[in-house]
Specification:
With 197 residues, the protein is mainly α. It has one domain. 79% of the residues lie in helices and 0% in strands. It has 8 helices and no strands.
Length: 197
């Protein structure tokens, strides 16, 4: 019973501050706040970050900490590429693909070899990082902005891990699979919208 209450507290503690900061608007020209709020500004980013945490927890073992850390590190590199406007082909398509693939892996409860999983995560992180970096306002600090969006991303990964552990503890793994279907479905919707537009 203690574990259940701790899990619920863990989820609420991570989610409430994030939701509060998601509506900071464009008024505050602060690098850290802009960076921190940016991952919450689009449902595609939020779902992908939570999906990484869900999948890492599903894989268990060292993947539970390795996947989020690799994602955040490579996303930082992608962000740098976006900030200096080096061309990265199809970054937006990489974001949509991350939703489709991660959602499908969650829905089917697929456990890929760790090396392949890390490669996928790194590819998706590069796309997300480029999107964050390319949208950085020009009048704020690169380092504080990057620190903000990397911290927010890590918190979203932890929300995914917390949810996965809570569902597993409640013997409700089916909700993780359902979440995967919803994430993949949203990725498919964005893909169709992109092709149609």
């Amino acid at each position: 019973m203690k574990i259940n209450h701790l899990s619920i507290f863990f989820f609420i503690a991570l989610t409430v501050p994030a939701l509060a900061l998601a509506h900071t608007g464009d008024g505050a020209h602060n690098g850290f706040l802009h960076g921190f709020s940016h991952p919450f500004s689009g449902l595609d980013h939020v779902l992908a970050m939570v999906a990484v945490g869900l999948w890492a927890a599903q894989l268990q073992g060292r993947a539970i900490w390795l996947m989020p850390l690799v994602f955040v590190a490579v996303m930082g590199l992608g962000g740098l590429l976006g900030m200096v406007t080096l061309p990265v082909i199809l970054a937006e398509h990489g974001i949509m693909l991350s939703l489709l693939v991660l959602g499908t892996l969650l829905a089917w409860r697929k456990h890929l070899p760790l090396g392949i999983g890390i490669g996928l995560i790194a590819l998706f992180a590069l796309s997300h990082g480029y999107a964050h970096g390319s949208e950085m306002p020009p009048d704020i600090s690169l380092l504080t902005y990057a620190a903000g969006f990397m911290l927010a991303t890590l918190l979203l990964h932890l929300v995914g891990i917390g949810l996965a552990l809570w569902f597993r503890n409640q013997s409700r793994i089916v909700w993780i699979r359902f979440g995967g279907i919803m994430i993949a479905g949203y990725g498919g919707f964005l893909t169709i919208q992109s092709v149609a537009g």
